[in-house]
Please model this.
Amino acid sequence: MSFFAEKHYPEAVVGASLDDYLAKGWYRMGQSIFTTHFLCFGEQLYSAIWVRLLMENHQFRKGQRKLMRRNAERFHIKYAPLEITPEKEALYQKYKKHFQGFIARSLSDSLLDGEDYNTFNTIESQIYDGDRLIGLSFFDLGKDSVASILGVYDPDYAHHSIGYYTMLLEMDYCHQHNIRYYYPGYVVPGYDRFDYKLRIGDVEYLRLSNNRWEPYRNFTEEEIPLKQMERSLEVVRSALTNFNITARRYYYPLFEANLFGMLQATYLDFPVFLKIDPLYPTPQFSYFLVFDVRDQHYKLLRCSNFDDFRFYFNDAYTQAFNPETFLIELTVVEQLLFKTKHLNEVQLVLAHNHEKLV
Model:
């Protein structure tokens, strides 16, 4: 089974290599590159929807042109290869104090994992008010793509929309260098903190069910992967009651275990599933029914617990979740028992084989 969440550590991600990763919904994390399709904020799970902007026929809107013109008249802008300096670290620390949410300890940690080399070809845009550095953004260059990585700014200049302005500068860089795609990362339906990425233009989104980029204006709530999973599993749960089979829905906040470089194993990475109660339960195995939005298949998994999971997830994190709703045990997928697109086959297979689930 392929993973919803995965991380690679290549020696270099430049040129066409970065283009390929970005086109598949991957993104930089320090000196690694990763993908994920689900997120957990507090006790709520969400879908991550990867977006990009096709630059070939893109034109800045009137409001964007006005902001760019006004700031260009006030500030000095230049582009340069990535170089971390005390001046930039100081700006990052000032920005960090006003940032709501998690942010890396330092600029070096955020971009380079504290190393003295860079796996990516990174450019920075610099914004100066006279001799004072007030804004920075960092973006990675591929052959035909730009990935926006990080923007920071002096909070004293927030009324100049410097954070948004740095994204417009990155897009302008794409225009100047005939770069086809601009990748700002993901948006999160139902969690508006990332909606600013939708303001940049008529973006496309990566649709999981066919792995194609399609216009975001056509995106509907029915296509949100987590919602698709919930709906499909609820139909099964209801139908199984006719066969006296208990199926309980659980959410799984440890779905990103495959990102953490743990022991080689296939960790469960579905954010929601039905736990099928066997006729003769044993502590050794559990049986989970999932719905995979990538191929539109129901899949029955035989799973086991990873005993030492608190080595990777601390008690404070796991105890925040209600065990009535969330599974908070790190889970390994031992075997895919069967898969099907058809609801009636799920019912028949589980009804005829219920006594074999031990």
